[in-house]
Amino acid sequence: MANKRIDEPTGVPTVGHEWDGIEELDTPLPRWWLWTFYLTIVFAIGYVIAYPAWPMIDKATEGVLGWSSRGQLAEEMSAAEQARATMRERLARVPIERLEEDSELMQQAVAGGAAAFRVNCVQCHGSGAGGNQELGYPNLNDDDWLWGGDLKAIHYTLTHGIRQPGDDETRTSQMPSFAGAFDSSQLDDLVDHVLSLSGKADASQAGAQLFADNCAACHGSKGTGNREIGAPDLSDAIWLRGNSRDAIKHQILDPRMGMMPKWEGRLDPVTLKMLAAYVHSLGGGEDFLEVAADPEVKVDDQP
To answer: How far apart, in whole angstroms, are the C-alpha atoms of residue 155 and residue 149?
Structure first.
């Protein structure tokens, strides 16, 4: 039987148990702790009344405030969707040439374009847009552009594609095959000259003559290319298919030309603008020289 008593030194009652002469005191809890405990009970009762709390068969009790996490999420998603809609409306109205003049809108367009790029473009250009030399997918981070790197030029390429069948406005260039046109010595001379344009080999007089007779019409006398017809610049040391002698010979004798699908019809016009803004922002985007020189210059007002 428990033998409760008052502990004389402390004046606190014991719990009535003893172990080897050791007794346990029944010390009361601190008053501040008890009041805190009582307050948590009151808070819990108020919370159950005000907010969803008791689970039912298909939902919880609604609470007198009518709040729910699902409802709050729906409101936030609606607000975010409205903000996106407003931004898309602004993008639809601004001419592509003027997009950079609104830094906030440009930033939003780049963010939206990054999402579109991850869905539609990484399969070929890679997640970092570095391309693939072996397969002929261009690196979008450098400043080498076959048809121009300003926003409008990039937007046009995205819209109509490259060598897209069925689109009369698609980007198109064609390098003829020179298989059988040169003997091995002439081919070596021509490759030497092509490499010399970017400082990777010694100039060859014979190769220079062959280049002038067969290649300069498209690539220019100094090999700097021609954006009007999509002829690449051979003097900048940036290569789509590689700069080894074998790679250059292969491209001379059996040219490989890729195809990029047009995104008009697959993506809406605003998404195309955002995608152009993102590609332009990767590091090699060019300015509109004519717009920068004269703010009053007329631009294409079509969205």
So the answer is: 9
Provide the β-strand partners of residue 63: none
pLDDT surpassing 70 at residue 300: no
Cα distance between residue 35 and residue 148, in whole Å: 75
Give a three-class secondary structure readout of 59-117: CECCCCCCCCHHHHHHHHHHHHHHHHHHHHHHHHHCCHHHHHHCHHHHHHHHHHHHHHH
How many Cα atoms occupy the beta-carbon half-sphere of 127 within 13 Å? 0
Half-sphere exposure of 189 (CA within 13 A, CB side): 14
What φ, ψ does residue 130 adopt, rounded to 5°? -80, -5
Per-residue pLDDT at 298 exceeds 60:
no
Q: Say how far residue 270 (Cα) sits from the centre of its chain.
A: 16
CA distance 234 to 239: 8
Residue 303 has pLDDT above 70, yes or no: no
Interacting residues of 227 by C-beta distance below 8 A, sequence separation 6+: 145, 146, 147, 148
Tell me the average pLDDT of the chain: 89
> In the chain, what is the greatest distance between 2 CA atoms, to the nearest angstrom?
119
The pLDDT of residue 61: 84
> Do the Cβ atoms of 151 and 97 come closer than 8 Å?
yes
